[in-house]
Structures are given as C-alpha cells and as structure tokens.
Design brief:
This protein folds into three domains: 124 residues, 3-Layer(aba) Sandwich (Rossmann fold), CATH 3.40.50.12160; 228 residues, pyruvate-formate lyase- activating enzyme (Alpha-Beta Horseshoe), CATH 3.80.30.20; 53 residues, Nucleic acid-binding proteins (OB fold (Dihydrolipoamide Acetyltransferase, E2P), Beta Barrel). Helix content is 37%, strand content 23%. With 424 residues, it is of the alpha/beta class. It has a five-stranded parallel beta sheet, sandwiched between helices. Strands 14-15-16-18-17 form a five-stranded mixed beta barrel. A hairpin with a 2-residue loop joins strand 14 and strand 15.
C-alpha cells in the first residue's frame, strides 16, 4: 500500500483543507504515516502570512528532494499560499521531486480533483468524499479570500477575492458532521463578517448563525476571523439571542495607535475598537476577548508602541497573538520607508508578551474554584484535554468522560495558558 504524509503550515483553513486532502488520498488507497522518510508522497500545505512559515516550507521542499535523490521517494505535492506566489522558487528547490504545485487561490475541490487525476488515471467524477466519524469539534470554511487589502497582508493576493459558499452547502456539511457526532462547529473565513456580501446579503453571517443555532444536535458554535470595522451593534444583539453561540470573540486589533491603524488601512480607530469591546462586554456574560497584534510596523515609534501597550492594559485581553512585523512580497507595507530594526521589534514583542502573559494569568486564575463545562477533545499521559465555551484549554486529571462528551469540572489551578481541573 502506498503511504503519504501531510505537513500543514498556518491557519485553521489550511488545517481544514489538509483534512480534505487526507480524505482524497485515503479514498485512493493511500495509508497515512507520521514519518516523512517512510512516505511515498508528501503533501505540503503552505502559509505565507509570515516570512518564517514560507522559509520552513521551502526548507521542507529541499529536504524531500534530498530524500528523493537518495532513495527514489518520496515525491511532494505543494499547495497553499506559498504555492501561489513562489511557484518558480519551489520548482527550483524541489526539482524532480515535486510531483505538482496546486495554487492556494484555486478552489479546494479543483485541487482535490487534480490530485485524483494525477494519482489514478480515471475520471474525477468517480471520486467520493467520505465523511469519517465526527470529531468533537470541526472547522467549516464558509468563505474564501479577502477584499480588505490591509497594507501588511498577503492574503488577498494568495487567496483571491472574497467568495462565499452557498448556504445550503454549508448547512448540509454541518448536518453531516453533527450526525457523525461533532458537537462544536467553528465557521471560518478570512473576514467572516463579509459572508454573503458577494451575494448582496449584508446580513449573511448572522442569518447563517441563526440557521445553525436551530439545528438539532449542535452544542457549540464559534466563528473566525472577524474584522472589527465590519461589526455592527444590531448583529451583536442578534448573536446575543442565540442559544449555542460561544462567549468568545477573536477581534484582531493589530495596533493601539490611530496613526499606525491608518497606515495599515484597517478602517477603524482605537476609540471605535474600545467602544465595540464595551458593547460585547455588555451583551455577553463571562465573555472572553482575544486579539492579534503586530509590533514594529513601518515607522512605529516608541509612542505608537506605548499606545498599543496601554490598549492591552485597558481591554485586558484573555490572550493576544503577538507578532513582529514581517515584510511580505507584493504588499504596500513591505515597500514603506521607516522599516523598524529587528532588535527593536524583538524588544517590543517581548515587552508586550510580558504584559499580556501577566493579564492572561490573572484572568485565568479567576476561574479557580468554579465549575465549568468542558468539551472533551483528547486524552494523553493519564490526562483529559478539552475547552470551555470561552475557548480556554483545560487539563483534567485522569480520564474524564469520553471523546466528545460535555462534562462539568472544577477548576483547581491555572497558568497564563491553561486551566487545570478535577471532574465534578
């Protein structure tokens, strides 16, 4: 039996796509292995949002080539964002070991069909997409691409313009997942607030959420990623009426400086962002707020950075995903004057992480002594792992419940990343 290995870089959409590629290869009779050296085929699903992810992908392409030249296997299929922008570089590094390159802005099913046609000489019409047993939680992309063109972001280039999936297709997929045992669904989109905009429906996201909320068997609903400029109070109020929506909002602020936000072309001000968070806190009980932040954006001064640090201290995010600015090809920010030195970016990154980690620790320790509901996601080393509705990871002593169960636990301890618990 032929063997395959999949390596995924980047976001949840890439994770979702890799699962679909996995189904395709399994339907073709391939067996998955963990060791790249045992594989006949390696599928590399790439991300180019950060320069480091791109470097890792190209390094892996070179490693596969070295194995291929030594052993005659494996060959690689490269897809995702880097495949869109760096096709020539991939071919140069991988040479004969690269079986094919599938650009990340091509529709997923077209890429799956191309894999099918390459690996078996029959019509792709015979291809079947079998639904495996449902996992406790699943990601479901509802749209692809982005129209925002933030000056630092390569996504509109690698993923193309926004395209929403038909409502009935999404509902059918979620119904199949719930029937197979999935309890929690996370809807995905580069700017999920724009779901339905390309169909002329400005209320597409909330109408989709309301439709899913009525579905029998669904227990939790999440969505990623929201653009702060595209939220409105009416949508938030309607979300507050849903029975299964999780009280967790991921709202990338990127900077606390209005000057930098304008250079980023984010479309909102610091003051608007704060008012949006205040509305969410007023509508949702025990809500958690997470964010993305970029430090060292071109021309960022000490004063701009201080504004960001003050915003983190004011909002008190449950978690911040903080990154140093990374120049991405084809973006306006990569060509801007006033690029910040790496040592300054590193210093600001570490300083902000220290502030955020202290806030995260204090917010997590508030849960100590409380009884909370956890969705059981996995087991290992005599422990049970799961998440509460606020998207905080809980480590439970011993084996508690079964995979996919919703159980009550008492929080006994916490650090800035995890909560620890005992079954009730």
């Amino acid at each position: 039996m032929k063997k395959f290995n999949i390596i995924t870089y980047g976001c949840q959409i890439n994770e979702y796509e890799s699962n679909k590629f996995r189904e395709t290869l399994q339907n073709l009779g391939f067996e998955e292995v963990d060791d790249i050296k045992r594989a006949d085929l390696v599928l590399l699903n790439s991300c180019s949002v950060r320069e480091k992810s791109e470097e890792k992908l190209l390094s892996r392409v070179g490693f596969v080539r070295s194995l291929y030249e030594k052993n005659g296997f494996p060959k690689s299929i490269v897809t995702g964002c880097v495949a869109t922008t760096e096709e020539k570089k991939i071919k140069k590094i991988g040479k004969d070991s690269v079986l094919t390159i599938l650009k990340g802005d091509e529709p997923l099913n077209e890429r799956r069909e191309k894999i099918f046609n390459i690996l078996i000489p029959v019509s792709a019409d015979t291809m079947t997409y079998e639904r495996t047993k449902g996992k406790p939680f699943e990601f479901v992309p509802v749209m692809f691409g982005c129209n925002s063109f933030c000056t630092y972001c390569i996504v509109p280039i690698t993923k193309g313009r926004e395209k929403s999936q038909p409502l009935d297709k999404i509902i059918n997929e979620i119904e199949a997942l719930v029937k197979a045992g999935t309890k929690e669904i996370t809807l995905l989109g580069q700017n999920i607030n724009h779901y339905g905009f390309d169909y002329g429906n400005k209320n597409g996201l909330i109408e989709l959420l309301e439709e899913i909320d009525r579905m029998e068997g669904i227990k939790r609903i999440r969505f990623l990623t929201s653009h702060p400029a595209d939220f409105n109070i009416e949508t938030l109020k309607r979300m507050g009426e849903l029975r299964h929506i999780c009280p967790h909002f991921h709202l990338p602020v990127q900077s606390g400086s209005n000057r930098i936000l304008k250079l980023m072309k984010r479309g909102y001000t610091r003051e608007y962002y704060v008012s949006l968070i205040n509305e969410i806190n007023g509508l949702f009980r025990d809500v958690s707020i997470t964010t993305d932040i970029i430090v060292g954006f071109p021309t960022e001064t000490d004063e701009d950075f201080i504004e960001t640090k003050k915003l983190v201290e004011e909002i008190r995010f449950d978690k911040s995903f903080i990154a140093a600015f990374s120049k991405r090809p084809y973006t306006l920010a990569a060509k801007m004057d006033g690029q910040v030195e790496d040592k300054v970016k590193k210093q600001r990154l570490n300083e902000l992480l220290e502030v955020q980690n202290d806030i995260s620790l204090k917010k997590n320790r508030v849960y100590i002594g409380k009884t909370v509901e956890v969705l059981v996601e996995s087991f290992g080393n005599g422990l049970t792992f799961g998440r509460i509705p606020q998207d905080k990871l809980v480590i439970i002593e011993g084996k508690a419940g079964n995979l996919g169960d919703l159980i009550n636990v008492e929080i006994t301890d916490a650090d800035f990343i995890h909560l620890r618990a005992l079954p009730v």
